[in-house]
Amino acid sequence: MSTASREIRQRNEQFSTKARAGKNPINASRKEKLSKQSPLGLWALGLVLFVVVGGVFFEAIRLVFL
């Protein structure tokens, strides 16, 4: 028996064990995990980047014209 067929058999066994136990036998996708996550952190990061980039841009304009 090759290792590939042994791995497939082992994964099938794990899948059926989880399914019989009533648990979700498949792992959630990245998209599903991100949809459950709060978007507040992303908004905060965007705000910080906006302030920093805006400050750098403002200082560059100030140096050029003054």
Automatic annotation (TrEMBL):
Coiled coil: none annotated. The keyword Acetylation does not apply. Keywords: Endoplasmic reticulum, Membrane, Transmembrane, Transmembrane helix. The chain crosses the membrane at residues 40-65. The keyword Repressor does not apply. This is Stress-associated endoplasmic reticulum protein. It comes from the Eukaryota. It is a single-pass membrane protein. Belongs to the RAMP4 family. Interacts with target proteins during translocation into the lumen of the endoplasmic reticulum. Protects unfolded target proteins against degradation and facilitate correct glycosylation. Residues 1-32 are annotated as: Disordered.
